[in-house]
Specification:
- The chain has 5 helices and no strands.
- The longest helix has 140 residues.
- The chain is mainly alpha-helical.
- The protein has a domain of 188 residues: Helix Hairpins, CATH 1.10.287.
- Helix 4 crosses helix 5.
- 9% of the residues are buried.
Length: 292
Amino acid sequence: MQLEVNEINKVFSPIKEELESGLDEKRDLRDQLNAKVRAYLDNRNEVNRQVKELISEVRSQKDIRDVANTKVKELKLDRAEKSNELKLIRTELRGILSKLEESGDSASRRSGPSPSKIKAKMDALERKYERGGFTGASEKGFFREMKRLGQELKEAKASNKDGGKLSDLKSAVRSAERAQEEAHNRVEKAVVAAQEAHDLMVELSEEVDRLRELANSAHSGLTKSKKEADSIHNSYIVSLRCIHSIQDIVKAMEARTNEGQSEEKTEVSDLMSKLMSGDTLSTEELMSLQRN
């Protein structure tokens, strides 16, 4: 029996020593891989947190851009209205200028007597006529003069009317041009604000994509490291179990050997007591006593 224990020790001892020598290396490698897993996990979680914040900011910038685009549309309608008003006033102004050009030199007309002076002269002639100041041939001259002054008064009134309207239209054109320019400037500012919000949204979206790639890379590293760590850990556990199994086998064999030796010693003691008491031993008992 003792021989069997020695043979078992001889077989298992090198295996046990080899397994024990690799335990520390496996444990250290497993711990290193677990540390990498933790680092990858922390990195992935941090990147995902940043991605979440950026996605929220992208949505915010999208809302700002959409509001700005809506404002741009409204301001463009206002600008178009102002431009149309300016166009109508300019058209009316060109009509007045064309009318004045057709009726002759407007500047010379405006340098002549005013309608009030012409009317005063006509009234004076009328009073003179009523007092009998025109008789015979001079009466005909009165009628010709009154006719001429009437035509001149008509032309002076028309010229004065068109001139006043011309001045009003020029003033209206200047006001309409300012209003149209202000409307255009508001459109330009709104367009810039909308474009800035859009550009920022695109920039943030690109950053989200970049961070997602980093998160995916960290997750891949985490998965790979965890798989390697689990594999090393399983190998470590198997080695421990093998060592414990070898130890259990050796202990069991030693226990059986010690138990057999104890039984043999008890048997020898009993045979010696029987012999000393004068009893006769059988051949088998004598052979057993001789072996021990």
